[in-house]
Amino acid sequence: MRLDKFLSESTDLSRSEARKVLKSGGITVNGEVVNKGTHVIQEGDGVMWEDEPLALIGLRYIMLNKPAGYECSLKNSAYPSVMTLLDIEKRDRLHTVGRLDVDTTGLILITDDGQWTHRIISPRHQCDKVYVATLAEPLADNAEEVFQAGILLNGEDTPTLPALLERIDERTARLTIQEGRYHQVKRMFAYLGNLVLTLHRERIGQLSLGDDLELGESRYLTPEEVHAFVAED
């Protein structure tokens, strides 16, 4: 890898900013000052910027307890992006694994690994997403059967995959789905003539949000948590 690219990959410097730092003599490779961006970095080389060692960031896997009022987007629009809740470098490389509506809270995964994302969001892999919904009206008597049979939502060509509905009380339910269609949970309850008042995602696959993270807090996944999604095949 070229040295100027290495600097832009391992710091917040742009490629042009990296070249300016190189010209200033602030970068050493294996203890020697190098000021050419075309210098090729080999595996095992020690790169330092003003006596601070640099390393490539690598792939990242993060879980966030999303508050209401944030969008699962890369840039702020009408609402701030969930990425603004992360105090880490190179946030522009990250993306959310699927999306939660702006008013939906709970577990969202964030990564820069596209293949890992596909493994989770593709219905082919049957990765459970578990939500708790509070409703405006009592649940219909046949709600479990309707959700299990699949629902042809308005504007869709195919019905939803079978979904598991568990009653918590007459206006609260836990719903397990394996898809991520646009506003899917809200539209499924709307099919039964009900309105979702609050929606919270508590689990993806075997990964539960738990009680460790307050709203807006995040943490890196452990290697075991990352690999668990692959092992579920």
Task: Explain how this protein is built.
This protein is 21% helix and 25% strand. It contains 6 helices and 13 strands. It has helices spanning 3-10, 15-23, 114-121, 143-149, 184-191, 223-231; strands at 27-29, 32-33, 47-49, 52-53, 61-66, 95-96, 105-111, 129-135, 164-169, 172-177, 196-204, 207-208, 218-220. Strands 5, 6, 7, 8, 9, 10, 11, 12 and 13 form a 9-stranded mixed sheet that branches. The chain has a 4-stranded antiparallel sheet with strand order 2-1-3-4, with no helix packed on it. Helix 1 packs across helix 2 (15-23). The chain is elongated and about 75 Å long.
List keywords for this structure.
233 residues; alpha+beta; Structural Genomics Hypothetical 15.5 Kd Protein In mrcA-pckA Intergenic Region, Chain A; Pseudouridine synthase; 2 domains; 9-stranded mixed beta sheet; 6 helices; 13 strands
Please give a quick description of this structure.
With 233 residues, this protein is of the alpha+beta class. It is built from six helices and 13 strands. It is elongated, with a radius of gyration of 23 Å.
- Could you tell me how far the N terminus lies from the C terminus, measured between alpha carbons in angstroms? 35 Å
Helix content range: 10-25%
Proper CATH architecture of the largest domain: 2-Layer Sandwich
Mean pLDDT: 92
CATH H-level homologous superfamily name of the largest domain:
Pseudouridine synthase
User: What does the radius of gyration come to?
Assistant: 23 Å
- Classified by CATH, the class of the largest domain is Alpha Beta
Helix/strand order: HHEEEEEEEHEHEEHEEEH
Could you name the ranges where pLDDT drops below 50 across 5 or more consecutive residues? none
Q: Can you count the helices?
A: 6
Q: Overall 3D geometry?
A: elongated
For the biggest sheet, the summary is: 9 strands, mixed
- In what range is the share of β-strand residues? 15-25%
